[in-house]
Amino acid sequence: MTAASPLLRRKLRKRAVQEPGYAQAVPERFGYYESKPEAGGALLWVHAVSLGESRTAGLLIEALRQRIPGLRILLTHGTATGRAEGQQLLREGDLQAWFPWDTPGAVKRFLAHFKPSLGLLMETEVWPSMVQACAQQGMPLWLVNARLNERSLAGIHKAQVLMGPAYRHLAGVLAQTDMDAERLQSVGAPVQGVTGNIKFDARPNPQQVETGLQLRAAWTAHSGKPVVVLASSREGEEAAWLDAIAASPALHAVQWLVVPRHPQRFEAVAQLVLERGLSLQRRSRWTDLNGHSPGPTPAADIWLGDSMGEMALYYSIAQVALLGASFEALGGQNLIEACACACPVIMGPHTFNFTHAAQDALAQQAALRVADVAEAVQAAVALAHDTPRLHSMQQQAQHFAHAHRGALDAMADALAGQWALMATDHAGDRL
């Protein structure tokens, strides 16, 4: 890790060309920080590496604030989109920084600078040097909303000498499912409970849902076409999707909408569309979401969702969603968000990031599984035009999302209890 530090600097410079956020506060990546916590009082550190984890962390932080008056947060991230999302979660007295590159020196400087009282790593972010340093200093570090798929488990076993101690030295783990708990325990992690997946407790933005439904109704009345979205797509998926629809009746059977997962790829996806001779309408050129928007221009073959933080809008416009990152070996994106908007999901073969949720959605007929993008296109068109089946799956999708709620309260109660125990121990030490 130390030897690779110059490579990290080079990577950050390259990423900053498309995402300027990566040029922000680069010294923090190596453990050099300017913002200091206020003197006195405990600081809860929450690490949310990217956009999805930051949104999930927002739910947990708000629940903990309700249980712990005056709670002060240190929020760290690894990606520019995660950091931008995290800024919306901060209150007076809170701090935000980059997670340090996992070298002993950077980690030591991070802990010495901020002196957090308790640390929470969201979902999967276990780094050997950080865990070791926290254990040596007696700073409890928990892995929460934790998941561990078979692929990652195999990787841990291959690097057992390095990763085994990292999992064993965590102070505690709260797992999403029983299967996650079993895998985590198999590598020595101290699992304290199975609390569920707090992504189920996220509520779609009501204004976006209302506006999306209005736009859907206006569009359907105008064109007679349902809308199908390729949601949170990743590199390679858009090209395969365009190949599947460009030379087939599917192109004009529905209105297609694509929402790339990463904003730096908006232009590349637009170029893919135009290279195939298709017309394009961007979300950024629609009117605003004040209720007076007429929606996208009807003439476009493809609508491009080139905005951040509006997935509830896109899922509410669409009748059916193709799940991004499931058609390449990337593990799938968050299908729960689509289901919460009553948008049934068509998934590819790769959903190992959401194994349990994907299996439950299939069992409850809130989702369909297909072999590849070409089959997904045909399945989406068929479902969008099968009104009775579509309405049934829309109801099942929303029921699936609602039925699994409750993880947030369970997790927040457990962590608030740990915070109270820690505060009691510190009071005893002072006495």
TrEMBL record:
Pathway: Bacterial outer membrane biogenesis; LPS core biosynthesis. GO terms for biological process: lipid A biosynthetic process; lipopolysaccharide core region biosynthetic process. Pfam families: Glycos_transf_N. Residues 25-202 form the 3-deoxy-D-manno-octulosonic-acid transferase N-terminal domain. Its EC number is 2.4.99.12. One of its GO terms (cellular component) is plasma membrane. It is an enzyme of class 2 (transferase). It is found in: Cell membrane. It catalyses: lipid IVA (E. coli) + CMP-3-deoxy-beta-D-manno-octulosonate = alpha-Kdo-(2->6)-lipid IVA (E. coli) + CMP + H(+). The active site is at residue 53. Belongs to the glycosyltransferase group 1 family. Involved in lipopolysaccharide (LPS) biosynthesis. Catalyzes the transfer of 3-deoxy-D-manno-octulosonate (Kdo) residue(s) from CMP-Kdo to lipid IV(A), the tetraacyldisaccharide-1,4'-bisphosphate precursor of lipid A. This is 3-deoxy-D-manno-octulosonic acid transferase.
